[in-house]
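hiii, so i know i said id send this last week but things got crazy w the move. better late than never?? heres the sequnce for the chain we talked about at the cafe, plus the structure i predicted for it. fair warning i was half asleep when i ran it
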Amino acid sequence: MAVSVRFVGSGDSFGSGGRFQTCIVVDGPHSRFALDFGTSSLIALAQQGIEHNSLDAILLTHLHGDHCGGVPFLLIDAMLAAKRTRPLTIAGPRDLRQRMDAIREALFPGSHVMTPTFPLSWIEMEPGQPHTILDLVVTPQPARHTVETNPTALRVEVGGRVVAYTGDTEWTEDVARVARDADLLIAECYFYAKPVKWHLNYPTIAAQRENFGAKRVILTHMSQEMLAHADAVPEECARDGLVVRL
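okay and structure toks below
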């Protein structure tokens, strides 16, 4: 059965090009899940006609707001207006529950008294270990990004396909391990020429292209500088609303 990947949000932290923050929705044979869920994700989902109650899981690479900040908004709406009943699994790096609770309370002071009426599971994924989440096998690997975010890159086996996602990171052998032989590698490409600590830029991606080992590569999380060159590079570049099938 085909696996569908939708770039609901393909932008960087700062709305470059008018794009929404990272939110990648994957439909497999038995479940729908999101890779990262930036602060603007509910808006992006609504604009594209996707009910957030339809998500079975959210897989987070790291704890920066443009990758996880939409989760508190989803949870509070799920308990109030959306009246969610469907179970939800939120999986991510070390300290996930504690850190997300703190972010939610900072955004919505007093929200700690709210209790979900739907089944809600939190899973902290140990890097280097495969984790069975619903019908998925998710293997995180350490990423080289802001250390306080507990960064990872993710390799997801779904419906007989492998979707790999770098999250935010410099190039490392662990990232290469995530990408190897994947049906799709989603790689951040923050800048075209400028080197930026803890991120991939286009010269690095071009230099490592053969080492990716993935059947298909799509670049995302692009700054204004990278967007200005997106039409000139040979790799596919994401845009909000892009759907690909594997």
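btw The mean pLDDT is 97. thought thatd interest u
miss u guys!!
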